[in-house]
Automatic annotation (TrEMBL):
It comes from Pararhodospirillum oryzae. This is chorismate mutase. Residues 2-62 form the Chorismate mutase domain. GO terms for biological process: chorismate metabolic process. Coiled coil: none annotated. InterPro entries: Chorismate_II_sf, CM_dom_sf, CM_II_prokaryot. Its EC number is 5.4.99.5. It comes from the Bacteria. One of its GO terms (molecular function) is chorismate mutase activity.
Length: 258
C-alpha cells in the first residue's frame, strides 16, 4: 500500500505517467545477463527501451524537453532512444528552460548535459530546492554507454528509485567558501558516503559555495546519512540535497563481449 501511495504521488508530478527508471534498469540488467546467441545485446536493449516507452505512454502522454545548443547536437537522439522514437517533445537552447519546463509540468522529462566546471551557467543548483515538484536526476544517458562520447542526464519531477544494481547518486552541498575539497570529502566519508568525483563547484555570493558530488550507491531523500552530514553545529555542510540517483549505463564489455 505504501508503494502504491508513493507511486500515485509521483505520477501527479509527471502528468499521471508512472515512470520507473530503477525498475527498468534492473529488468535490462537481467535480460542482458541471461542473453545467449548471436542477437546483439545493444539491439536487445534498444528493443526493450521501445517496449518500455510504449507501455508507459499507454498510461498517459509523455513529453520531452531537450537541450539542443545547436542543430544536430545529438541530445534529441539520446532522448528518443530512451523514451521512444515517436515521443513528442520540444528543444531548447537554454538548459535552464529545460529545467523550467519540467519543474512547471509542461514536460514529463527533460534531457540536460552533464555538469561541467567550465559551463558559464550551471543548471544543477536549481535542483537543490526541497519544494514539491522540483526535478530530480533519474537516468544517465545513453543506457548503452557513451560510445560516441555524448552523454546526458534525464530529469523528472519525481523521487529517484534505486535499481538494485550499480547505482550512482548526485548530492548538492552548501558550505562556507573556505572549506577545502579535502575537508568536504572527509566529511562525506565520515558520514558513510563513498564520494567518487567533485563534478562542479560554484560560489553563491561571498559566504556560500555550492558543490555537486557524485557518490557510490543510491541515496534517497530520507537517508539518515544526510541528517548526520548537515546535523551538527560544527558541521561544515549547512545544507545537503539528493539531486538524483541513477543506474550506471552498460559498459561496452557488457554489451559487446562474448
Amino acid at each position: 500500500m505504501a508503494d502504491r501511495i508513493r507511486l500515485a504521488k509521483q505520477a501527479e508530478g509527471t502528468g499521471g505517467v508512472y515512470l520507473r527508471p530503477g525498475r527498468e534498469a534492473a529488468v535490462l540488467r537481467r535480460l542482458v545477463a541471461r542473453h545467449q546467441g548471436p542477437f546483439p545485446r545493444r539491439v536487445l536493449v534498444r528493443l526493450w527501451r521501445e517496449i518500455f516507452s510504449v507501455s508507459v505512454s499507454m498510461q498517459g502522454r509523455i513529453t520531452l524537453a531537450v537541450w539542443m545548443p545547436e542543430r544536430g547536437a545529438g541530445y534529441l537522439e539520446l532522448a528518443r532512444n530512451q523514451f521512444g522514437s515517436f515521443t513528442s517533445g520540444t528543444v531548447h537552447q537554454s538548459v535552464g528552460q529545460v529545467v523550467q519546463e519540467v519543474g512547471e509540468g509542461r514536460a514529463t522529462v527533460g534531457v540536460v548535459p552533464l555538469p561541467r566546471p567550465e559551463d558559464a551557467i550551471a543548471w544543477w543548483p536549481a535542483l537543490m530546492s526541497t519544494l514539491p515538484g522540483t526535478p530530480r536526476v533519474i537516468v544517465r544517458l545513453p543506457v548503452t554507454g557513451g560510445r560516441n562520447g555524448l552523454e546526458a542526464l534525464v530529469i523528472a519531477a519525481l523521487d529517484p528509485e534505486p535499481s538494485a544494481g550499480e547505482d550512482r547518486s548526485l548530492l548538492g552541498l552548501e558550505t562556507g567558501p573556505d572549506l577545502s575539497r579535502t575537508g568536504l570529502l572527509d566529511s562525506l566519508r565520515a558520514n558513510g558516503f563513498d564520494p567518487l568525483a567533485v563534478l562542479d563547484a560554484r560560489a553563491q555570493g561571498e559566504d556560500v559555495r555550492l558543490t555537486l558530488i557524485e557518490v557510490r550507491g543510491p541515496v534517497l531523500r530520507d537517508d539518515a546519512r544526510l541528517q548526520g552530514l548537515q546535523g551538527g553545529h560544527h558541521s561544515p555542510v549547512q545544507h545537503a540535497v539528493v539531486i538524483g540517483t541513477y543506474a550506471l549505463p552498460f559498459t561496452d564489455a557488457e554489451l559487446d563481449g562474448p
